[in-house]
Amino acid sequence: MDSVQQWFQQQAEGIGIALSERQLDQFETYYKLLVEWNEKMNLTGITEREAVYEKHFYDSLTVSLAVDMKGADSLADIGSGAGFPGLPLKIAFPHLRLTIVDSLAKRIRFLEEVAGQLQLNDVVNIHGRAEDIARLPAHRDRYAIVTARAVARLAGLNELCLPFARPDGCFIAMKGSGVTEEVEESRFSLQKLNAQLEEVKRLELPLEHSERHLVILRKNGPTPKAYPRKAGLPLKTPLL
Ligand code: SAM
């Protein structure tokens, strides 16, 4: 184990996650694949090793501060891109059934490769728009936890993500700074989508000290039939 892995293991421990050597190896393989595939396709602007461990891997794991991961059985990550936060969470909490939805086919191909090389079970990577996939009975109102990072402003994002959460399940939106206005702006969408704001947790990245927020939204009951609207509409004309 080198110093970056040691640092990462300590940081994970600091938020209550004990990572084994095997899990640390999985993170390292993930890092290598990310950098390798990033030369052929646009996966991330962050490639420096320490930065990937901090801003992608560690940042993804902070979701566990918002919800009891051990008590949850399933997680859907919407607009996962190169796999964040879904894949790091799956590595750290292997019991989770993970579904990833992304509208870009080449990113889904990358995620298939990572899941295969890391020998992760119970990972389903779906190429499609969240609006369409959330209409399928196998995914609608089904997941204990839904996550999204850097996909859209909350008012529109709620309509893409909340339909995946089961009644009493939660959607955790990972946000940077300046979240207050976005949360206020999203109140109407919560009402329409049968959900409520539970808490906004403020965090800081350990090295860079930049601000992060976890917006925790709780589903009150099933998704009303009208939602999500036709693909494209939630982000083009958010529920405001
Ligand atoms: N969550 C990742 C992260 O934080 O690094 C990726 C963020 S990337 C900026 C946004 C991703 O959302 C892209 O991969 C894009 O293809 C996907 N996306 C955007 N709209 C979507 C939709 N309606 N349904 C599914 N995926 C969507």
UniProtKB/TrEMBL annotation:
Question: What InterPro entries does its record include?
Answer: rRNA_ssu_MeTfrase_G, SAM-dependent_MTases_sf
Any one GO CC term of the record: cytosol
Q: List localization entries.
A: Cytoplasm
Residues reported in the UniProt entry to bind S-adenosyl-L-methionine:
G79, F84, A130, E131, R149
Keyword tags: Cytoplasm, Methyltransferase, rRNA processing, S-adenosyl-L-methionine, Transferase
A molecular-function term among this protein's GO annotations: rRNA (guanine-N7-)-methyltransferase activity
Q: Which Pfam families match?
A: GidB (PF02527)
Where is it mainly found?
A: cytoplasm
Enzyme Commission code(s) on record = 2.1.1.-
Q: Which family does it belong to?
A: Belongs to the methyltransferase superfamily. RNA methyltransferase RsmG family.
What job does the chain carry out?
Specifically methylates the N7 position of guanine in position 535 of 16S rRNA.
Kindly provide the name given to this protein in its UniProt entry: Ribosomal RNA small subunit methyltransferase G
Q: Which gene encodes it?
A: rsmG
